[in-house]
Structures are given as C-alpha cells and as structure tokens.
Amino acid sequence: MLTFHLSTRRQNLPRATTTSFVLKPLFFHLLPLLYTGYKRRLTLDDLGDVPRHLLAVPARERLKKGLDKEDQARSTYLFRGSIRAFGGSFGGPVIPRMILMLATFGRELKLGRWKRES
Fold this sequence. Notes:
By secondary structure, the chain is mainly alpha-helical. The chain has helices at about 1-10, 15-20, 30-40, 55-70, 75-90, 95-115.
C-alpha cells in the first residue's frame, strides 16, 4: 500500500525532481524536451506540471508575508524579506554541498598536513 502511494505521488512530480543524483548533473532528463523543441515549438503542456510552491500565486503570498515582517525604511528590506520567505530554498543546498566538499577534499587536506609535519 505504501508503494502504491509513493508511485502515484511520484507521477505528479516533474521529471527533474525524480531523477537520480547521479544522472541529474548530466541533464539526461532534458533530452526528450530538447528533442521535442527541435521538432516543433514547445507549449506549456510540454513542460509538465510545475510544483505548487513554484507557481506565482503561492510564491507571491510567501513573499508578501516575508516583506510584511520587515521594516520598510531599511535599505535591506527586499533582501531580508526574500530570505525570510524563501530562506529554506536558498540555504537548503548549502549543508549537503559542504558535506560533499569535506568528503572530497578532507583526505587530501589530512594527508597534506601529515606531509608537512614529517
């Protein structure tokens, strides 16, 4: 029953969000769209479903709530309101990227320190 729920839920998601982390940087999920665009003019229906949180109306409401909490006299009003509204989307990828960077370069940094000490 859980498998059925996940599979029906996954059908409504854009293809880019369901692609594996190995294939996502290679942009293979865009090949069918690029081929369609090569053959004929693309329409909005060709692009698939846009997630609800990325549509204009919900995003505008979140931004308005974030801006209402800020002091409009400050010069950083728009920046602070945007970060308040969409901070999770901006900052979400930072921690996984830092972990990846530490895993990638951690060994080399450790070996470099050992070589300098000896």
